[in-house]
Design brief:
The chain contains 12 helices and 9 strands. By secondary structure, the chain is of the alpha/beta class.
Amino acid sequence: MNKRDRVLRLLDEAAPQEYVPAAFFMHFDPSCHRGQAAIDKHLEYYRYTGMDLLKIQYEHAFPRRPEIQTPDDWAGMPLYGVDFYQDPLDVVGGLVKEAKGEALVLMTLYSPFMCAGHTTSGQMITEHITQDPEAVVRGMEIITESVLIFVRECIKLGVDGFYASTQGGESGRFADPALFQACIKPYDLAVMEEIDRSCVFNILHICDYSAGYDDLTPFLDYPGHVVNCSLTLGSTSITAKEAAEMFDRPFMGGMERKGVIAHGSADEVRRAAEELLSEAPERYILGADCTVPGDTDWDVLRTAISTAHAYRGR
């Protein structure tokens, strides 16, 4: 079996899991965000580390809109069409052509709420939703349609799925949890249900880059063949096995992005990976809770990945 087959095997509950896939993701230097340079850097990183997925970083954030200062201003949010996305689509097309025969090719996908934060700031969109949720929803609808334009073009180009990132449900973001349910979740689901209908392999990434979570239950009904999230919940933690059971699907992660994987030696990373693997669920991808720092040693990542590959074959 090639890497595609091994990762897709995770979705077969009846199949024995004799191989543990692994992958870690990072942002590359801005000089490698577009064109052939981006294609080459993604391939170099994927092949050097030996990882089992080729995930394409998204480096084309929505432009800042300084004219959005109040909740009512979101009604004027522009709709970004295919032309706006041409740079990342060129990268998608190149990587699908180069790698789809050997591995699943996934595109990073930021949620409509995250795109709204790129448009203004995370703080401003949060304040506006708190002040006047009905006004902000008009902008969220436009953003969602823009994101869906990108999604559909990526699907036409042949991606196998998406690494679908969501924020907005973090502890402390909203005093009233109903705001998440009304202004963020419906637009997350509109995008995620689209990719679920069209793609063979999607990863639900519950992103704690801005803040952590006390409760993951609002995300249990989100689509996604695999779930990736932090195992820290407030002042407590759960295991990878508990996360897999909670979401009733394979789990990806286990290593803290700023922990041993970012600053440890190869031996330290190997020991940490083996400890995780000894307690992991049967259907599991070794990885980090989010994007690892850009200066993380590729050799250390390769050590973690090779440790996962060898673990069940010993």
